[in-house]
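Case study B.
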Amino acid sequence: MKLSELLQNVKNKKWLLNSIAYYHENLFLLAASEFKVTDKSKKVIIVSRRNYNEKWQTYPSVSLKELKDILKLQKETSNSLIIESFSKNEQQEGYDVKTITFSEKLTDEFSKHILIPETELINHYYKDQKVVIEAQTPAGNLFYSKVEGKTKSAYKQGLVSSLESFCLSIGVHSDVAKVSLTQDDYASLLNEAILNTPFLSLYKTTAFDFKSSVDYKLLHSLYYGPLISAGIFIAGVNAFYMYKANSLETTLLSYQGGVSELLEQKQKIDLDKLYVEQVLQEFELYPNVHSHWDIAYKAISEGMDIQEFSGSKSNVTLRGFADSASSILAVISELPMVESAQFSGPVRKSGKRDYFIMELKVVGENEK
Amino acid sequence: MKSNLLKYKNYLFVLSALIVANFVLDPMWKNIETLQQKVYLDESKVVKVENLIANKKQIEKQSGLLSINKLKLQPYLFTASTESEFKLTAQGKIEKLLQTNNCNVERIGWAGKSNIEQQLVRWTLEARFRGNPECVLNVSRQLESLEPMVKIADYSYAGKEVSGDKQNYMVVALTLIMWQNANEVAL
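Model:
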């Protein structure tokens, strides 16, 4: 949604009408479609025609930039609030400028308010319809019409004593529709004009002294407030953690002497423990093998002539002669320290005797 | 100059707020994260230190027990700070044992070493000798009861016919294992 659409939606809410008043000597509320005197100040003021002057001026042979510079200068030098609008004038190769100047009294009294000239609202209401209006306003009967794109308005007084004389004075054709509005009708018209006019169009026809209306201190406080709060919070948290870190460091320093000694001791313990464990592991890896002689003794006792007796912690090999190889195997197998026994290769006959190689698995001893 | 400053005072207010936010508050905010990390680490360090101090007696007790165990192990290892010192001692012991038992030494040689731990080295010695059963059995028994400890990793006893006769003659090849304590000084 565009910003202008959003603002338009907000503006269309009827409750906003409560912030709008009509001004002529007094403030009048328009919310109930009638002019009701009020003492309460409102932010948006519809100003009666008596409190401002309307002036049309043609600036021939100027560029848009030059025109804008001129209008800016006029705005800066004026003591009163002014509204300037311009349209291109092809014939003069320049611009027609409409200047609405609010009275100094009004400017002083409502310098912090948003001012809307009532004739501009009528202009927005009727847009390009050709009408002549006679409206009863709190400031008197007001005549209004639009001729060749220029709004004309005057109060019923002096020479302009009737709608006809007003038409004659501004050069409106007698066929143009004439509208007569009572005060209540006029209040309704202003309300509807406020509600129906697009926000940007309405904005262009309002006078507002931004510099005197805006409280810069308040604006700055909008971001300085959170900034200072965040600053205090961050400084507080920093201080808290710095204090905590400092106290922890002090605690650590107080332990330092004893701790380094203990750590050294702990390190030494770990090294010693590893050393002792590894020495014991090494001893376990190499168990005693002298007991393997029991196997050789048993074999010799059973009549074996050993040619070779070799082995390691869990394997033993016997090579030699015997009258009966199988009887030797049977006896050896029964030894408690032998887990398994078998011939390696064939048992050969050498004369009357058997020649064989026997391989044994020895039960592992727990040397611990 | 002053009038210019006053003219742009609102811009200066905004600018100063941005500077404060960017160059003061943001670094301070980042500093909080660093401090949080430091506090967290210090807290865990304090907890560890306090636990360590609480276990002081246990550590001392453990240290005492380990010292005793180390002392008990010391006689079983060859204590020598250098390789040559170890070899001299160990080989001398083996040769003396073989001579004492009337064995004929053919060859004795070192087959290698392994560094088990910073101060523990395992050595392998290969010995080849001849002798009668008395020599062989005595050597086998006495080797395994030696202090410092000597273990037989592999053995091979061969003869023409070993039948239990004292006159049998055997050729023996042993692979022996010994351990050197490289750091300790002999008591």
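DSSP finds eleven helices and 17 strands in chain A. The remaining cases will be described in the next quarterly update.
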